[in-house]
Design brief:
Layout (H helix, E strand, L loop, with lengths): L6 E8 L3 H18 L5 E8 L6 E8 L2 H7 L3 H13 L5 E6 L3
Antiparallel strand pairs: 1-3, 1-4, 2-3
Helix pairs in contact: 1-3
Length: 101
C-alpha cells in the first residue's frame, strides 16, 4: 500500500528477443505520449538497456494512487498491456519508491 504521495514506480521488463523489444518500444511510444498528458502524471519514461536489448526499465512518477488507477483504465494503457503480455520473456518486476527529494 502506498501511504506517501507523490511516488514513483520502476518496472523492469525482459522480452523474448530483440524483435519483441522493438515491438514493445513502438507500442510504448503512444502510451508514454498520452500518459504524460494525464493530470496525475509527473513523468513517464521507457528506457532500453544499453547492453541488453531485451531489457526495459519503465520509470513513472505519479501524484496519487488515484492517478494510477485512472491511468490503468485508459484504452492506450490497455492496448500497451496487450503487447507487453505477448512479448514478455518472464514476469516484470515493479518497485514502488517514495520520492526523497
Amino acid at each position: 500500500m502506498i501511504i506517501w504521495q507523490p511516488f514513483a514506480l520502476l518496472t523492469t521488463v525482459r522480452v523474448k528477443d530483440k524483435a519483441a523489444g522493438d515491438r514493445l518500444e513502438a507500442a510504448m511510444q503512444t502510451v508514454v505520449e498520452k500518459s504524460r498528458q494525464e493530470a496525475g502524471n509527473i513523468t513517464y519514461h521507457v528506457n532500453r538497456d544499453a547492453n541488453d536489448s531485451t531489457i526495459f526499465y519503465l520509470y513513472d512518477r505519479w501524484n496519487s494512487i488515484d492517478a494510477v488507477d485512472f491511468h490503468e483504465q485508459t484504452e492506450y494503457f490497455k492496448a500497451g498491456l496487450v503487447v507487453l503480455k505477448e512479448v514478455l520473456a518472464e514476469p516484470p518486476t515493479t518497485t514502488i519508491m517514495q520520492i526523497a527529494y
